[in-house]
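Entry type: protein chain
Record version: 2
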Amino acid sequence: GVPQSDFFAVARTLVHLLSGRHPTQLPVHEAGQLLWRTQAPQVSKPFADLIDELQAPAWRKRPADTETILNRLDRLPRQLRRHQVLLSLQFRWAIGISSVLVGVSSIWTLHALAAYQQRSQAQHFAEQGAQQQLTGQIDAAWRNYQNALNLDPTLLVAHHNLALLCQGEGNLSCATEHYQRVLRLDPHHWQTYYNLGNLYDEQGQFKKAAEYYRKVISGADLPLKVDAANNLSRLYNLEGQYQKAAQVASPLLPQVQDPLSQAALLKNIGWANLGLRQYDTAWKSLNQAKQFDPQRADIYCLLAQTQEARGIAQGIKQFQKDCLQYETTSALPEVRQWRSRILDRVL
């Protein structure tokens, strides 16, 4: 982590507060920026520009320090007034630009202009599709993404968001096709490798999922790398490869500052130690995980199992109750299985 990681977190928090949507629910532009502004039309462009600068995908493009941000905030009122003046001139600017374009006679220039307009129109369709996707207008979003790709088959963001839409609708062949097209356009698009890992993970195709998670771990920046490592460690635990699960999760733990990510890593390490019959170590890791994320169901399921393995009855019933009670991670198949075992005993 670097200071600019905190600026990123502040920006994402502001996006969440201003738009009413969690940033992970928002589609992304091909350059990696969140498409959030139409969800917060009350935010002026200069302030929105500052928020986007704080959450630039590349940390080196974010402000260098808090003093830089304070200076930007000092200038912001002047920028807001200037922006209001420019808005009133937009129509005249448009007329002037149109007049210049009409006077252009070069065939090459017209061709370049046509290509630019076509790409701009494709991006417009993709942005419309993203907003419709956010509001659940799936058919309309699908049509706009297809329109975008008909105009520009290389528009990465349209392929990426269409793949997300297809995955959400359970159309796996469509999702896979468009994720693969993203990777042909950008072989280092780590988010797509991660999404493919998730797709195969959800289908129980763990070997394929693990392949994509490993690629993310080898090349992505820390936040996405940690998510992939957590998922891969979980898959190894599910397959009974407990040593591998611990080896994937443990090296990243000292680098992580986010409490939820720390909880997930510690949970996977505790699960691996439980499988390796290192019960006291498992107990310690799982208790640490509980401190970071006290409402995560799978932690309590594993704590109950660890106490049983240690031959200590104290706390088991409460852990089982919490395993059944909390909703976080309740959709995971292993959690459903653990809950079923608890309920079978009760009934």
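Comment: The mean pLDDT is 88.
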